[in-house]
Amino acid sequence: MWRWRNRPSARPADAPRSEQPPDNRRELWVPEARRPRGAETTPPGAAGRAGTSARGDGQPGPAQRPDQGDGTFLTWARAHVAVLVVLAAVLGGVAGGAVGAATVSGLSTPPAQPPGRPVVLAEGLPRIVQRIGPAVVEVRTSSLGGHSIGSGTVLTSNGLVLTNFHVISGASPAGRITVQTGTAATSGPVQPATLIGADPKADLAVIRVTNASGLVPAPLGNSDQLAVGDPVIAMGAPSGLQGTASFGIVSALDRLVRVAGPSLGLAGQGPPVTYRAIQTDAALSPGNSGGPLVDQSETVIGITSAVFEGTSGRSIGVGFAIPINDAEKLVRTMVAQYGPK
């Protein structure tokens, strides 16, 4: 039996099914198998995700979504903390519109590690990037309202990809979701994808690439084993630049983050979402949303989701990732239903 790395046996993954899209009031949503391709898209002028508490008291801070304007959309929001800062969900917009020991259903798990915490040396970083890089994809959502760019983490060889809910929530029924593999030097084919399950309260979603085969799944780790000071690498396609990686450390754990609700297309904007995140100083930029945060054991321990920016619009070295363990229920449910048989 496949097991999540260093985790106890799986909890039952019971997920309700519905023909209705998520409205942030359900923990887990699984659409019908014949649901039309596509999800929802952010309408023109829609702005993005949002604020968290950096006050040190564990309380989430308020947030709002200003428009980016010019028909594009980029998720930004302001939070009042010690000073006025901007927490941006790291979702990009384009102009003109906005864990190999055992597997189950193609979901990859890492080999057992020896006792003790490995130390990452500079020469080991390229190896980690080369190992995880093929499992990182660019995710684009398009509609009449514009285009958004985010990232995704491959779960199975047949095309299941984990990303942030806010990356794909704005796609209208008339819009489309596409996925592209690639590196800084080469780009793979652009392939259509379909939203198959989501946990809006955790800002997580799983999409399925149409007719995919041979994709490289990412090794999933155990975020409960992280410690402050652990080195990490953030990977993704910021601003559409595939094969991008940045190095940092775990700056804090269990940071309470509150973000503005995602766009739900014609249904408007969902309620604010609050979750506990991994804080990192690895550089994150618009378009990193949904990409993996990777630890020194070459496993995915988080999904990058948001970043603080100062009032000048520049990063202040405070980024956030959703712990991979928090995605376990959604991932298990989707892989059991849609993964390789």
TrEMBL record:
Keywords from the named record: Hydrolase, Membrane, Protease, Transmembrane, Transmembrane helix
Its domain of life reads: Bacteria
Provide the residue span(s) of the region labelled Disordered: 1-71
Per the record, the GO terms for biological process are: proteolysis
Which Pfam families does the record associate with it? Trypsin_2
Give the signal peptide range: none
The protein's name is Putative serine protease PepD
Q: Where are the transmembrane segments?
A: 81-104
Q: Where is the composition biased (Low complexity)?
A: 39-56
Provide ranges: composition bias, Basic and acidic residues: 14-38
GO MF terms, alphabetically ordered: serine-type endopeptidase activity
Q: What InterPro entries would the database entry show?
A: Chloro_Bact_Ser_Proteases, Peptidase_S1_PA, Peptidase_S1C
Provide the E.C. number(s) assigned to this enzyme: 3.4.21.-
